[in-house]
Give the backbone structure.
Amino acid sequence: MRTAGAVVVAACVAIAGCGNSGSNDNGVSFRFLGVFQEVQDTPGSPPVLPTADNHPGDTGREISLSQTTSIPNDLNGDGDVDGGFLGMENNLTLQSLNVQGVHVQIFIKGARLPNPVATDFVPLTITLGPAQVAQTQTATNEAFAQTLFVAPKIMAFLNQNQTLLPATPFSMDIIMRLTAIDDAGDTFDSNEITYTVNVLP
């Protein structure tokens, strides 16, 4: 997977101090920014990865259960997966955050399976620096990390159970939440992001 890291020091006041998942309402201390795509990804040329200054949104995609093996997948046929960069931001003033991974739930309206029809935890190893740094330092509290948030095992499960899913086309909502641990050992759960996929015949 590819990782692009860049930080913007927030102009507004960052939230400081210790906490846990209960102190991070709406992602105040640890924010899940969304899902993003490459700035440019032309086959034959190195991709331009998202940064804090330039990060186009990845708002969803169309897939086939029988042909798509993961999400994100290779959209332009250049041999690597496209988009699927999870944006994250640490707003703790003085403490770093070690991002543990992303919790994934998949909801399919009309499925004859209980919702969520699948759940997963995808590990990540991203360290976000504190929001406040000296003027001579480069902030590292924001990062964009590409990961297969719908793993091949989940896609295989959906493909093998198509008789329990609605007739195509249908949509599935992928709800994601990041988990991180700060320097004091407190756990932070981010706000949730919903990524919608249209499943075609």
About this structure: Helices lie at 152-160. Residues 3-199 form one domain.
